Amino acid sequence: MLSLALLVAACGDDEETTTTAAAATETTMASETETTMASETETTMAPSAELPDTIQVGAVVPLTGANAGLGKQVQGGYELAVEQINAAGGVDINGTMVPIELTILDDESDPTKTVQQLENLNSAGVVAYLGGAGSNLHAAGAPIAQKNQIPYLGIAFAVMSPHQQGNQYLFSPFQKSNDQARTTFEIFDTFDPAVTNIAIFKETTDWGKELDDLWTEEATNRGMTVNTYEYAPGTTDFSSLILPAKDSGADALLALPTPPDGLALMKQIKELDWNPNAILMIRAPDPPTFGENLGADSDGVLLMPGWNPAVNFPGSAEMVAAYQEKYDAPAVALTGPAYACVQILADAISRAGVVERQAIRDAIAATDMDTVIGPVTFEADGTGNVVDIVNQWQGGKQMLVWPLDQANAEIIYPLLPWSER
Prior knowledge:
Blueprint lengths: L4 E7 L2 E7 L15 H8 L11 E7 L6 H20 L3 E3 L2 E3 L1 E7 L4 H13 L4 E3 L4 H14 L3 E2 L16 E2 L5 H12 L8 E7 L2 H16 L3 E7 L7 H9 L4 E4 L3 H13 L6 E4 L7 H6 L6 E3 L12 H12 L7 H18 L4 H9 L2 E4 L2 E5 L5 E2 L4 E5 L2 E6 L19
Parallel strand pairs: 3-6, 3-7, 7-8, 8-9, 10-11, 10-12, 12-13, 13-14
Antiparallel strand pairs: 1-2, 2-6, 4-5, 14-18, 15-16, 16-17, 18-19
Helix pairs in contact: 2-10, 2-11, 3-4, 5-6, 11-12
C-alpha cells in the first residue's frame, strides 16, 4: 500500500507543501557513466551511516496566478513520482534506501517570488531544485541555481536563452524552440497538398522572436513563402493579422499565443472565415480549457505540450493509471515530463552515491536512461535529448499524432473549412 503524509504550512503569502513517505523500493539504474567525475564518485562513496534520514528536494511551482493551471499539472507529476519512490523505501544509495522529502513552494506566477522561494529553499538545505511552469519563471530561477550551485531540473519551458547564459546547473528534459521548429516542418513535409505559404503570428517577446527566426529559417530552406505579422501579448483584436494573412493565400498558420490570446485568435479566425490547411500553436492549446471553450472549432489544431498519456514508453501506462487513481483525473500534458524529472533526479542520486549537490549535478549531466517520456540524455548546455511529441485536438481530445511510431490517431489535414464543421 502506498503511504503519503502531507504537511501544509502557511507563512505570509507563501504556500508550502512537504511530502514525505517511507516504505520499501528499488530504483531502476541507468547505464553507468564513463565520465571522470563518475569514476571519482565511485571511489569516494560515503558509508551508509553518513547518509541523511531524507533527501531534501525543493520545488518552486506557480500554484496561484496566471500559470496556476500549468503549475498544478507539474505539482501532480512531482508528488506522484516522490510518493511512488518513497512507497518502496526511497532512493537506493549504495544499498541503503533513503526517502525523498519534497517541499513545494508557490511563487504565485511571479518571477521575483520565484527567486525568493528558491533562496528560501537554499537556506533550508535542499540538494536539488525542481522548477515550475513558464519561461519567465525558469529564466528567473536558472541564475539562482547557478549562484547557489544547486542542480535544477525544469520542464514546461521551450525558450533557449536560459541555456545560453552559462547556467551549468540547469537541466531541462523538454522540447526546446529548435526542436519545435524542426519537428513542425518535418510534419509539414509529409502533407499532401504540400504547404507552400506560411503565416507566422509573432508575439513581441524574446520567445516570440526566437521561434519566428527558427520557423522562418526552416521554411526558407524549403523554398516556402513566409510572412510574419507581429502582435503584443494581450491583444484583443487580431484582424490586422488575420486579414492580410488570408489575403496572402497562406495555407498554414504558426503562432505561440498565451491561452487567452489563443482563444481570442481562434474565434476571430473563424469569424473572418480564414481557412488555412494547417494551424499549429505553441502554448495556447495545451490546457484542457482550449478544447472545452472552443468545442469543434478546436479540431485540427496541432500543439507540442511535451507529452501525451498514450505514449508507449516503459512505466508510462502504469504511471497514468496511478495518477488516475490518486487524483481521480486523467494525467495531462505536463504530468509525464514532471514525473520524469523526479525519475532522473532519483537515478542521478543513486549513481552519485552521495547526497551532495555537486555530485548530483554531475550525475544528472551524465544521464542516459529510459523514463515515462522516453529515453533522455543531456547536452553540455543542459538541454535534453527527448522524443518530440505532437498532439492534435480531435473531437474534444488531444490525440497523439507524432512521432508516427507512437501515434494513436492520424493527423487531420487539410483542415475542414469552417462552413463544413
